[in-house]
Amino acid sequence: MEATEKAWLKLKKMSKLRFPSHKPLSTEPDNLDDCLKILYVAYSRAKSGLYLYASQLDNNAKRQVPLAQVDFQQLNDFSDTEHFEAVVDPLPLLLGTNERLEREVIESFVAKFRFSPSSLLSFFDLQYAGPEEFWKQKICGYQSLYNPKSEFGRVIHLVLEEALKAFSKGSKWTLAKLIQEFEIHMLNFYFPQDHRVELNALGIKMLTIYYPIFEKNLNKYDLAEMKMFSDLNLNGFASAGVIDRLSPNYQTKTYRLVDYKTGTPVKIEGNTFKAFKHRMQLTFYKEMLLQHAKFQSFKMESAEFHFLKSKSLDCIVQAYLPEESDKDVLYKLMDFVAKQIQNRDLADINNFPKTDAGSMKFVDAVLNDEL
Questions:
Q1: How far is Cα 151 from Cα 188, in angstroms, rounded to an integer?
Q2: Which domains does the chain have, with CATH numbers?
């Protein structure tokens, strides 16, 4: 529907095709007939199920309507608009209520699920996600809604990744080169014009402040966007993670871990849920590296978050070395979520506010066996 080059953008070779979730499912009046013909063809070719995904956003990229599923078995008369609307319902809170969906779809989704820092912690993040969104996005693979700030973060990560890889091949990027590549990548990503101007200026400012720190500890052995797979959980689910920058020292058998953050800086030692998420993220990476064939004998020398949005150099780097107690917390949370998945259950979160503090209370309730 309205899949134009402007909406889909030109893709580089080997790039993943991204669904243009910033596009609402509306159309210009003169194109309506053609769009209905396309929709009819898609509908009439469905054999066992028909699923419609829609994302309708306002100018600030805020969700207006939820994603929905259509049970093909109930959809017999597409010509009746009222009947069509009657069978389009949001995905049930408990996905196992539809036996056919449970048998044919959910089992395959669950089998493919991998724990990652983002998937695990999204389950407990009541402010921005929570158990229901966890099921939809992390288990069922619902398309995430377009978010300009997330896309901006991807651009920053991509540029820093390319700069590290260039250095490992003997080419050190200057600040001017870094900014030049950033601006090129910004053109390859979709942004509403008002967001593009703002984020382009922000990116240049962030990279300019961060460059002295970035170049200071460059290592020809640096690994950029290092992908890892292992089995941290005892309930049968594999684990996966991506480390932004790993700097190993093969002489001392130690490594330095860096994770880039483009959002608002957070005090890692704080009591907020955001701080807790960051500590768990580093703990997750440490545990995965302990199972890595190449680095399991290495010791973590330092683990750092680099907050690129900081206003001064002194505030960019925040270090934290995970402790044994962090490991215990991580495994207990993973065990809780794994059992929720296996039992096709969702924790009752009605008593917890959908805030940062409410998320932390949810975590504490799990750790204290109150749920």
A1: 11
A2: 1-90 (no CATH), 145-371 (3.90.320)
* Residue ranges in the chain whose pLDDT is less than 70: 1-36, 39, 43, 47-105, 143-145, 232-235
Q: Which two tokens stand for residue 82?
A: 């009222």
Q: In 59-91, which positions are buried (b, 16+ CB within 10 angstroms) versus exposed (e)?
A: eebeeeeebebbebeebeeeeeeeeeeebeeeb
Gap between the Cα atoms of 115 and 117, Å rounded:
7
Its pTM stands at: 0.73
**Cβ contacts of residue 322 below 8 Å, gap of 6+?**
279, 282, 283, 286, 300, 303
Pair 230, 238: CB distance under 8 Å: yes
Q: Give the pLDDT of residue 62.
A: 44
Q: Parallel, antiparallel, or unpaired: how do β-strands 299-307 and 238-249 relate? A: unpaired
Query: What are the tokens at 58?
Result: 């306002």
CA distance 164 to 37: 49
